């Protein structure tokens, strides 16, 4: 039983009997693969991918597939789902192995191959032991080939976030192994990336051996996001979710692009906020707080990593936004405020040109929106700057930097 599922009773009154809010929080875990009837709007992608992998079910070679799509569009989920179904559907006597590698974690060739060998090896049946570390890349490849031949007719390997792998020859070696006579087992690779141009940048030799078909996943619309969440309503105790919670979480997640990961994160987080607050129900207000947290997290990452001068520039725009009814300000006005901040913090003051570049960089990162305004023939073109996110959230985040905190002290 998992910590958040509801146990029937607990003897010690120090601990609660069951969870007030969650009935099965595992359903809201990001890596969770829901049953087929909980997967929304991906029938076509599922069937296309199944066609590519069909060979494996009969013991022949599955095709290699490259899947593209923005974050949270179900690429990993659909890949894992189709792999599971291929394993279940395998013809009598055909053994299919499947493995999932997150290239953000295993980002070198050696790590990826040692992880693959370890995941695919069942030591009790092969008698092969795969040490976690300590072997050369070529030894890990040899171990991998041995384990595959000892157990499987076909193997499907998912390489998620392949663009983060620092050596693309993994693709070549995996797809050539059978042809090169290194193994009898056939191997298919599903490579997943958010970057549409990934294959263009891959080495030509790799490209020519990794003959692949491509699949594109579109973002979800708000209705699909809603359905995805309604299908996991039983993660919560009966009657705990108030009516607006799922539609509002879907609306927030649909704002940037239709990201199911974001939708589920907000929903789970709203439940946690409600629990922490001692509430009996998850309400719209908890969703808003969860969304603010998510925004803050994203911002914290962007702003924490920004140079001090960029923080001062953002603080200038933030101060104007917080203390005025307007939300967009001419660069000259932001610069004046920036000068005041730099003087107060005893920082160097950059030229207007450098300052403009900093704001442009922040616009590129999605923190600031810059708009050109035309003030007629005499006035010329001016730039207006607007914070994209809630100025209070930005302000709090910037003031987490101890150097910036001096701004609030007289
Ligand atoms: N069609 C769907 N039906 C139900 N749940 C979904 C669907 N698509 C995505 N999800 C859920 O949304 C979350 C994110 O999905 P997934 O990890 O598959 O996205 P992804 O496209 O691989 O994202 P990333 O590129 O960030 O890895 C998971 O919890 C997944 O279960």
Automatic annotation (TrEMBL):
Gene3D superfamilies: 1.10.8.60, P-loop containing nucleotide triphosphate hydrolases, Winged helix-like DNA-binding domain superfamily/Winged helix DNA-binding domain. It comes from the Archaea. GO terms for molecular function: ATP binding. Residues 314-398 form the Cdc6 C-terminal domain. Keywords: ATP-binding, Cell cycle, Cell division, DNA replication, Nucleotide-binding. Residues 61-216 form the AAA+ ATPase domain. InterPro entries: AAA+_ATPase, AAA_22, Cdc6_C, Cdc6_lid, ORC1/CDC6, Orc1/Cdc6_arc, P-loop_NTPase, WH-like_DNA-bd_sf. ATP binds at residues 73-77, 220, 232. SMART domains: AAA, Cdc6_C. SUPFAM superfamilies: P-loop containing nucleoside triphosphate hydrolases, Winged helix' DNA-binding domain. Pfam families: AAA_22, Cdc6_lid, WHD_Cdc6. GO terms for biological process: cell division; DNA replication. The keyword Transcription regulation does not apply. The keyword Nucleotide-binding applies. Belongs to the CDC6/cdc18 family. Involved in regulation of DNA replication. NCBIfam families: orc1/cdc6 family replication initiation protein (TIGR02928). This is ORC1-type DNA replication protein. It comes from Halorubrum salipaludis. The lineage of its organism: Archaea, Methanobacteriati, Methanobacteriota, Stenosarchaea group, Halobacteria.
